[in-house]
Amino acid sequence: MSFEYTIKQKIGVISKKLNGDTLELNLIQYGNYPVKYDLRRWSGGNMLKGLTMDEDELTGLKNILNGYKIGKK
Question: Of 6, 14, 26, 61, whose CB has the highest number of CB atoms within 10 Å?
Answer without folding.
Answer: 26
